[in-house]
Amino acid sequence: MSALIELVGVSVFLGGRLVVEEISLAIERVQIVALLGPNGAGKTTLMRAALGLAPIEFGAAQLMGDDPMLLSARARALRAAYLPQRPQSIWPINVEHLVALGRFAHGAAPDRLSPPDQAAVDAALEACALTPLRARRMDEISGGEKARAHLARALAQHAPLLVLDEPTAGLDPAQALSVADILTRHAASSGAVLFSTHDVALAARIAHQVVLLREGRVISTGAPREALTPQSLEAAYARKGRLEQIGDTLVAVFD
């Protein structure tokens, strides 16, 4: 099975500073990969480099077999839906129109949706529990609802790969678990997910692979139980930590 994203020895400099150092990673369909690490570990830069949005100094990246730096914005959007940290909607559009922007790469506009485009928007609204809010303006809903609206826009894009920068930041536990369920369903439907998070327990819960970073370097990588050892957690966060099993759920405990 060919990888949707493949990074080989990728290093990135920003402002003359090395922020990602010789990282290799491959993500295939039905996989969920979580990037973990403290602030400044290089998670966002690594995701942007994988999409051709940050320059790679050394190494190489491929997005579904092509150099992402050489892809047009539309071609990239048909392969990967990217949700940055704290996305903004600068116009007072309603929720449905924001979600419909995900169809732009398919040639649609929010006020000119074909039946397939409308079906994609409806499905994304339903998946994110936003159908009752579809007519509400973005400046009239809560922060958590805004986060779900932006996630719905990414889902409506119908790209096989979701690349999400801290998609559960600022969400309450119930909303975060709902997002986790959405990501799991996307991967199970022959998609793939690459996301960053500070929620170690969430990564352990849904990711097939975690990549634990510190200062642009990989501390450990692999299945959560293998990669998130007490030694690797302390190396990454400079605090003693461990995974514990409570019922059917893995939780992260830091001392």
From TrEMBL:
<dbReference type="InterPro" id="IPR027417">
    <property type="entry name" value="P-loop_NTPase"/>
</dbReference>
<dbReference type="InterPro" id="IPR003593">
    <property type="entry name" value="AAA+_ATPase"/>
</dbReference>
<dbReference type="GO" id="GO:0016887">
    <property type="term" value="F:ATP hydrolysis activity"/>
</dbReference>
<dbReference type="Pfam" id="PF00005">
    <property type="entry name" value="ABC_tran"/>
</dbReference>
<keyword id="KW-1278">Translocase</keyword>
<dbReference type="InterPro" id="IPR003439">
    <property type="entry name" value="ABC_transporter-like_ATP-bd"/>
</dbReference>
<keyword id="KW-0547">Nucleotide-binding</keyword>
<feature type="domain" description="ABC transporter">
    <location>
        <begin position="5"/>
        <end position="240"/>
    </location>
</feature>
<protein>
    <submittedName>
        <fullName>Putative siderophore transport system ATP-binding protein YusV</fullName>
    </submittedName>
</protein>
<keyword id="KW-0813">Transport</keyword>
<comment type="function">
    <text>Part of the ABC transporter complex HmuTUV involved in hemin import. Responsible for energy coupling to the transport system.</text>
</comment>
<dbReference type="GO" id="GO:0005524">
    <property type="term" value="F:ATP binding"/>
</dbReference>
<keyword id="KW-0067">ATP-binding</keyword>
